[in-house]
Structure formats: structure tokens, C-alpha cells
């Protein structure tokens, strides 16, 4: 990547990329929808529905009419269960964020998490300040629709060519490519045995992939020309 297209904006997914909330979400979804579907969904059933967005997942399961009540049940469960089920910030992420901020790049979060859930999380997991935040509440369609990423770029007055989006899911990678941004894959939340299958699945969008937060921060700091030797690379 040339100096003329050096990255000046780093947008980040939240859950599964910066913080480990998979167990928390599975349990909150399970408890929230129980009164509406009449049985406990298994973790496998929940994950099979590919929950990319709080609002979309709950709507798909309980329907629009029952969404407001179910959403309140979800938020109560999220607050009640957070400390027992959430596993906090991934190792290396605070240092990654500090390194990214030191480059002078503007940082933002674009997430399928709602603003209310973010406030509950932020009170427990300190990630610092961001230049832009785009939540599930802000978009009509969740990722892989690029709407949230485009909103973030618009708020920052930035062009897609100036930005990278780091996420842990196929929908993150696809959304970044659809927005015209550089897609980057965070592999640290996945088991090593899952890396090859995931990279094969997202290969059409040519992400650059990283096994540690430090690798990603180094890549941005060095000008995002190519992944460092320690990173697992998609096609740059």
C-alpha cells in the first residue's frame, strides 16, 4: 500500500474481536426467548441462526410484535448474567488499541451490539475512547450489509480507501469488502483448527488475517503494505 493510500481509519467489530461475550450472548438469548418459544433453545440452535445482530436475531425468533417485551427480557438477562458469563477483553487487545492510537489513526467501532448493551459492557470492560461508534440501533440492516461501515466513514469524513475493518466473522469481512474498505480478519477468538476453514470461506473477499492483536497493530503501524511474517495472510 502506497503512502498515498496509507490507512488513517481503523474500524473494529466488538464482540468476538475486542471482547469475549459468546457464552454471555448464548445464555442471554436462551433465557430471553424462552417465554416466547416455549422451550429452551440449545447453543447449537442459537449459533445455527448466525446471530449477527441483537435486534435481528430476536426478531427472527419471536417476531416483530413480541420484540419489545423480549428485548427488555434480553437486557435484564445481559445485565444480570454479564459478570458470570462474559470473559472480558481478549488478551493483547488493550495493547493493540494503544498501539493503533499511537499511529494517529482514527478508531471506531461498528457492531451488531445495541447501544444499551454497549453501555452495560463499557461499565465493566474499559476499551478507551473511540472517534465513532455505530450500533445495531443505527442501521436498517445488519452486517454483511455495509450500511454501518458507511455511516462510520461518513461521520469521519473518510473515504473507504483510507480505512480497514477488523472483524471475526464472515459477515464482517463481506461487509468491509462491500463498503470498499480493506477487510481484516481477527483469528484470535477461534481455535487454531478452525482457521483454515474460516479463511477458505472468506477467501472471495480477500481479507488480511491476523492470529494476534499485536500482529494487526504492527501491520497498521508499518503502513498496511503486507502482513507481518507472524500473521496468517489472506490475499493482500
Compose a concise summary of this entry.
This protein has 236 residues and is an alpha/beta fold. It has helices at residues 22-37, 43-48, 54-62, 67-85, 93-102, 115-122, 147-156, 170-178, 195-202, 213-221; strands at residues 9-12, 106-110, 132-134, 163-167, 182-186, 208-210. Residues 225-236 have low confidence and may be disordered.
So, CATH architecture of the largest domain? Answer: 3-Layer(aba) Sandwich
**Main sheet attributes: strand count, strand direction, barrel closure:** 6 strands, parallel
Number of H/I helices:
10
Hey, roughly how much beta strand do the residues contain? 5-15%
CATH topology description of the largest domain:
Rossmann fold
Fourth-level CATH superfamily of the largest domain: HAD superfamily/HAD-like
Q: Which spans of ≥5 residues are poorly predicted at pLDDT below 50?
A: 225-236
| Helix-residue proportion | 40-55%
| General shape | globular
Given the helix and strand composition, which structural class is it? Answer: alpha/beta
Amino acid at each position: 500500500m502506497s503512502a498515498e493510500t496509507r490507512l488513517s481509519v481503523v474500524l473494529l467489530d466488538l464482540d468476538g474481536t475486542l471482547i469475549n461475550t459468546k457464552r454471555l450472548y448464548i445464555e442471554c438469548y436462551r433465557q430471553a426467548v424462552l417465554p416466547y418459544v416455549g422451550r429452551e433453545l440449545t447453543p447449537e440452535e442459537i449459533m445455527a441462526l448466525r446471530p449477527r445482530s441483537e435486534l435481528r436475531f430476536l426478531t427472527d425468533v419471536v417476531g416483530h410484535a413480541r420484540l419489545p417485551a423480549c428485548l427488555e427480557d434480553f437486557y435484564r438477562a445481559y445485565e444480570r448474567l454479564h459478570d458470570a458469563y462474559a470473559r472480558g477483553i481478549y488478551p493483547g487487545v488493550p495493547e493493540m488499541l494503544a498501539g493503533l492510537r499511537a499511529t494517529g489513526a482514527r478508531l471506531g467501532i461498528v457492531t451488531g451490539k445495541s447501544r444499551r448493551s454497549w453501555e452495560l459492557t463499557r461499565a465493566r470492560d474499559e476499551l478507551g475512547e473511540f472517534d465513532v461508534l455505530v450500533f445495531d440501533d443505527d442501521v436498517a440492516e445488519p452486517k454483511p450489509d455495509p450500511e454501518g461501515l458507511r455511516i462510520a466513514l461518513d461521520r469521519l469524513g473518510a473515504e473507504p480507501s483510507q480505512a480497514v475493518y477488523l472483524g471475526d466473522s464472515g459477515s464482517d469481512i463481506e461487509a468491509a469488502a462491500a463498503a470498499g474498505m480493506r477487510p481484516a480478519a481477527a483469528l484470535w477468538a477461534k481455535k487454531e483448527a478452525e482457521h483454515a476453514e474460516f479463511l477458505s470461506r472468506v477467501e472471495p473477499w480477500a481479507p488480511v488475517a491476523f492470529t494476534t492483536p499485536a500482529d494487526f497493530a504492527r501491520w497498521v503501524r508499518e503502513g498496511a503494505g503486507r502482513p507481518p511474517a507472524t500473521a496468517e495472510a489472506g490475499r493482500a
